Amino acid sequence: MKRLILIVATAVTLASCNNSKPNHTHAAHTANEREEKSASTDKTKADATELVDTTAKADTTKTAATTKSVTKNRSLDGVYTAYFDLKDALAKDDGQAAQQAAKKMEAVVAQIDVAKLEAADAAAWKQYQRKLAFDTEHIAGIDENGHQREHFVTLSKNV
After folding, report:
1. What whole-number distance in Å separates Cα of residue 78 and Cα of residue 111?
2. Which of 49, 121, 123, 140: disulfide with 103, CB 3.0–4.6 Å?
3. Non-local CB neighbours of 41 within 8 Å, separated by 6+ positions
4. Domain spans, the chain
5. Cα within 13 Å of Cα(71), Cβ side
6. Of 121, 22, 36, which is closest to residue 72 (Cα–Cα)?
7. Is the sign of the CA dihedral 14, 18, 24, 29 positive or negative?
8. DSSP letters along the chain, please?
9. Per-residue pLDDT of the chain (159 residues; tens, 9 = 90+)
10. CA 73 to CA 98: how far, in whole Å?
11. Which pLDDT value is given to residue 71?
12. Distance of CA 15 to the CA centre of its chain
């Protein structure tokens, strides 16, 4: 009985192997390559299109966020302008011009309206406003370039 089952199992196995002909012809191989290449190209095109869409959306979002942030921070432009004027005067070793620029910056720092700033910016501004005022007041009060530069270093750290 065991032999009969073994013979039947072997016959079924051999019969099933003979019925499945492998597709080893050149035409079949070329057709498979074309299908794979076409599927790969379609996937690549779809990925590229998705990437372009995602990138365009990200650029639009980034531009909108930058525009919003730049618009809100316009109130500090005067501080930056006065700071760069002071820097230029010190670079030229012109103590009198540095004093004038420091006085201008001192006035601009005092005129910043905290109510126009966002909550986080307003808290930071309150902390740094005193430091900026201190350094600009000292730069405006002396005409020695070396001492002005010492205060400018701390002013730069706080800007």
Report:
1. 10
2. 140
3. none
4. 75-158
5. 6
6. 121
7. negative
8. -HHHHHHHHHHHHHHHHHHS----SHHHHHHHHHHHHHHHHHHHHHHHHHHHHHHHHHHHHHHHHHHHHHHHGGGGHHHHHHHHHHHHHHHTT-HHHHHHHHHHHHHHHHH--GGGS-HHHHHHHHHHHHHHHHHHHHHHH---HHHHHHHHHHHHHH-
9. 778 787 877 777 776 665 555 555 555 555 666 666 666 666 666 665 665 565 555 555 555 444 444 445 577 788 889 999 999 998 998 889 989 999 999 999 888 888 888 888 888 888 888 888 888 898 899 888 888 888 889 888 888
10. 26
11. 46
12. 65
Q: Is the CB of residue 133 less than 8 Å from the CB of residue 152?
A: no
Q: Are 152 and 90 in contact (CB under 8 A)?
A: yes
- Please tell me the pTM assigned to this model: 0.52
Gap between the Cα atoms of 38 and 30, Å rounded: 12
Q: Which residues have C-beta within 8 Å of that of residue 114, sequence separation ≥ 6?
A: 122, 125, 126
